[in-house]
Design brief:
Rossmann fold, 2 domains, seven-stranded parallel sheet, 9 helices, elongated
Length: 324
């Protein structure tokens, strides 16, 4: 089958965002099965550095819409440019990151062009001329495989942490300028305030220490902070903790929070509700510390420690200090 898979990439302060590299991997997987090329569309303003990085991955074509109209990524303009690209390229599938921007403009484009859409996909395949999308349902307890067909492009939003990052430095695909054109916008973004972040971002942290209601009160989160600092990791929390006001919302992991893919996740005083576990599917190793041997977290943990966290965490910290 000839054709192309279209990847919609995003740029950040440090260049191309990791989720964009995941989408390249996902597109390459589908493209190899379908016999298609991979085309990337990078939208934004002042994205030259990200374009260079993206062009050095395993893609065959790179389109760059670099325009002041795309500064701060207004949804209406993003949707218009993507719709224009889909109309011109007629790709087999369009892969959009499940970011704050992506989950806004992807449904608009699908509705505008009357295209099928599957959101929050964690795996993709291609069988008998159709894309197969795997999505978590029922709070992540079940995965469903959805077959998308209809003879035209399909839109897929991809959950972060579902695929490996594509390698950078493999080639030099030249960027082609993609015209934004005229877009009638009714909303004007006048500024964006950066949300509070810790020293280590959850998106890129290789080690994350998460705390739950088992810590009993906000002041006891100091144990989680100390363990994260000793391991050079980031601090995370469950929804129950952020709802109680113990920790800021940007640290929340789960169905209504962040999805992470660290090499190591340490769950301290976390029961393991399905809503939280949904955000941990990309973790390589999960270590759970809980005094309840029947806590659901132990069902997904690589290693489980049953005991009092107020004794175990200080003991771990002492051992780390002794061996430092």
């Amino acid at each position: 089958m000839s054709g192309t898979i279209l990847v919609v990439a995003e740029a950040g302060d440090g260049g191309v965002r990791p989720i964009s590299l995941e989408l390249v991997t996902a597109a390459r997987k589908v493209g190899d099965l379908a016999g298609c090329t991979v085309t990337a569309l990078l939208m934004g303003f002042g994205v030259g550095g990200a374009a260079e990085q993206l062009g050095s991955t395993c893609i065959e074509r790179l389109l760059v819409a670099d325009d002041p109209a795309l500064d701060q990524l207004p949804t209406e303009v993003l949707a218009a440019v993507l719709a224009k690209a889909i109309t011109e390229l007629n790709p087999i599938a369009v892969l959009v990151p499940s970011t704050t921007a992506g989950i806004e403009y992807a449904p608009r484009v699908a509705a505008r062009l009357d295209l099928p859409i599957a959101s929050d996909c964690i795996d993709l395949s291609f069988e008998d001329g159709a894309v197969i999308a795997v999505r978590p349902v029922l709070g992540g307890r079940v995965q469903s495989a959805v077959r998308l067909s209809g003879g035209g492009p399909v839109v897929l939003t991809i959950r972060q942490g579902s695929f490996e990052n594509a390698a950078i430095g493999l080639g030099e695909t030249a960027a082609e300028s993609f015209s934004v054109g005229s877009v009638d916008t009714r909303l004007k973004i006048t500024g964006i305030s950066a949300k509070e972040r810790g020293d280590v971002g959850l998106d890129t942290a290789e080690t994350i220490v998460g705390g739950g209601r088992g810590l009993k009160e906000a002041t006891n989160f100091a144990l989680v902070e100390q363990l994260a600092a000793a391991l050079g990791g980031a601090v995370a929390a469950t929804r129950a903790v952020t709802d109680a006001g113990w920790r800021p919302h940007h640290e929340q992991i789960g169905q209504t929070g962040r999805v992470v893919s660290p090499r190591l996740y340490i769950a301290v005083g976390i029961s393991g509700a399905a809503q939280h576990v949904t955000g941990l599917q990309g973790a390589d190793t999960i270590v759970a510390i809980n005094r309840d041997p029947d806590a659901p977290i132990f069902k997904i943990a690589s290693f489980g420690i049953v005991g009092d966290l107020f004794e175990l965490v200080p003991a771990i910290l002492a051992e780390l200090k002794a061996t430092a």
